């Protein structure tokens, strides 16, 4: 299977193929990455790998007496990921294509990317100004009864949306068209559901579309039942913001 080496962008969330990823880039290592991607000819994809950080947040190993106001913060491409960065990341991620990279006057960047294909991390290189990773594509088979499962997931997802809108005292836009292609359905529902990061990661690395859809169907039914039996959801905002900080 063909491998490739791409810049690596770790996140504390999961990117799925076909989903849009807005980024606000301000750390120097990721600014260097974007400057390198801008060297790619406009008629070629500006690709980078997105992986989920295992512990859910980027943090350097702690030490006695930390926090210490006199301590020098760790710098470099692998800062916060220990001596073996590969162990800090989930092994299955997503290749992203940066359709828009806009540099601001202060040197930070606004980026709009889209997930394209799943990929498995093989090795991480921290010798340059930003992390790069060797990866191989993760192909996906439809599995058995993917079409019928997708129909069931869409029905369950509509019920989930209605219950969620009612619990949050918000109106539900019913005019939005949902896809019917099983693979697209599986990724869209995985991204749209309010799930913790480990569960989303499990859905990303499902062995085939049918397996992901079966898992989603169980999750949708369980989550809908929970919402139905609650008088209201907590006041905290339950959806993610429009950008991912780095």
Task: Compute the number of strand runs.
Answer: 6
Distance, first to last CA: 31 Å
| Rg on CA atoms, Å | 20 Å
| Count of helix runs | 5
What does this structure look like?
There is one protein chain. The protein is an alpha+beta fold. Helices cover 29% and strands 22% of the residues. It contains five helices and six strands. It has helices at residues 28-37, 146-167, 182-192, 197-204, 209-228; strands at residues 4-11, 20-25, 47-52, 92-103, 109-125, 132-137. A five-stranded mixed β-barrel has the order 1-3-4-5-6. Strand 4 (92-103) and strand 5 form a beta hairpin. Helix 2 packs parallel to helix 3 (182-192), helix 2 (146-167) runs parallel beside helix 5 and helix 3 packs parallel to helix 5 (209-228). Mean pLDDT is 85; it is low at 56-65, 171-175 and 235-245.
Question: What secondary-structure arrangement, pairings included, does this model have?
Answer:
Layout: E1 4-11, E2 20-25, H1 28-37, E3 47-52, E4 92-103, E5 109-125, E6 132-137, H2 146-167, H3 182-192, H4 197-204, H5 209-228
Parallel strand pairs: 1-3
Antiparallel strand pairs: 1-6, 2-5, 3-4, 4-5, 5-6
Helix pairs in contact: 2-3, 2-5, 3-5
Which key phrases capture this entry?
about 250 residues, 6 strands, disordered C terminus, 5 helices
Q: Summed up, what is this model?
A:
This protein is an alpha+beta fold and 246 residues long. It has helices at residues 28-37, 146-167, 182-192, 197-204, 209-228; strands spanning 4-11, 20-25, 47-52, 92-103, 109-125, 132-137.
